[in-house]
Amino acid sequence: MTTFVTAQKTFITDDFLLRSETARILYHDYAKEMPIIDYHCHLPPDQIAADKQFENITQIWLYGDHYKWRAMRANGINERYCTGDASDWEKFEQWAITVPYTMRNPLYHWTHLELLRYFDIDILLNKDSAREIYDECSAKLKQPDFSVKNLLKRMNVKIICTTDDPTDLLSDHKSIRDSGFEIKVLPTFRPDKAMLLIDSPEEFNQYLTKLGETSGLREINTYEGLLAALQNRHDFFASMGGKLSDHGLEHIYATFDEEAAKQAFSAARNGQLPSDLQREAFKSLVLFETAKMDHAKTWTQQFHLGALRNNNARMLRELGPDTGWDSIGDYSQAQAMSKFFNKLDSTDQLAKTILYNLNPADNEVLATMTGNYNDGTIAGKMQFGSGWWYLDQKDGMERQMNALSNMGLLSRFVGMLTDSRSFLSYPRHEYFRRILCNIIGNDVENGELPNDIQWLGKLVEDISYRNASNYFGF
């Protein structure tokens, strides 16, 4: 442990978040050492392929982290220190100034867990400790043991699934595979642009040009041609080890009018904005056809539902998407979801499915929807996924697991993922496991569950690792 002049030790003890003896036993004896399957994340595969070495803590920790940027903005920090031209040290210093103000935000826990687990730094980050922590972390990051691949190995990661557009050539995935790297890095098929850009004909046509080149089909001038190109890329992703698709949608689309979908394609291909009905039908049918592709390959389809994106038009123009201007939406979810899954199930073409919810008001809606389509072919075929984005924190995780427990089977849950762009995010799995063990431990201590440590320990190990390993079939 490094000794700092400004040392003020953190609150991260061995029993952090574990409020009972049962919880402590479950975590330390069962959950703690389980490997990690990160089946959904946004890690850049090119940085894994290159085994990137970061120059300083700012580059690996603050670049692209809209969670931190939102907190800094809320704390009155100028944009120059978030996404602007301030130096890396200046950006880190402003983050350190902000950290004490993030108490009771998950960022406060994540920050200190990450400093401890990666850098062996067990002091509070604030203005006074900032320089020493910056220098210590940055010096370590320059050592070979802190390259991207070694950071992943340090966290006992076994499998990573990135998130990739159908037009991606997956050359970085091939390089990683050919290098013999012991951690599997697999692509995930995310065809959102092929659907959602129908709302912007100019961008849609640019995308079709790229998709045509990538698929080898040259020009895509028909709706059928689009589906053929997507099938081509879906097949290629499978050849590269892909076993999952992913969709980031406001809500699921379920207007099954093929003629309207074809009209939408033709209008957009000619540079015209299709009608609302035509666009809705187009999104529904493309989503439906890719879902059938998933089933044919026994893949798992994932739906991230409920984000209201790009709320601040001025900042979207200045900084682009994914820079911290998204929030929770209040969309109607149940009816279209039911219609969509029912149509797939009616021909026995409903793939394994994970639903992630961003609006906590819809937790029970999604948790009960999954129960409608479990058909006994596989345990937990339909999953209510872990707390996502704004719900990826202690209260959100507890509410998600409570809803799942009340409406389904927590014991069949495939557990945690990072959904992160940062190589320093893997302590989130520890965070999740501690919360899981604490929930179960509290129930035992309250006399609501039997004190059967062997069975409960197996349950914790399953949720932490084995359920995902069995479910995805990696």
UniProtKB/TrEMBL annotation:
Protein name per the record: Uronate isomerase
Record-stated family: Belongs to the metallo-dependent hydrolases superfamily. Uronate isomerase family.
Pathway this chain belongs to: Carbohydrate metabolism; pentose and glucuronate interconversion
GO biological process: D-galacturonate catabolic process; D-glucuronate catabolic process
Catalytic activity field: D-glucuronate = D-fructuronate; aldehydo-D-galacturonate = keto-D-tagaturonate
HAMAP family according to UniProt: UxaC (MF_00675)
Source species: Dyadobacter chenwenxiniae
Keywords: Isomerase
Pfam families reported for this sequence: UxaC (PF02614)
Principal EC category: isomerase
One of the record's GO molecular function terms: glucuronate isomerase activity
SUPFAM superfamilies for the chain: Metallo-dependent hydrolases (SSF51556)
Assigned EC number: 5.3.1.12
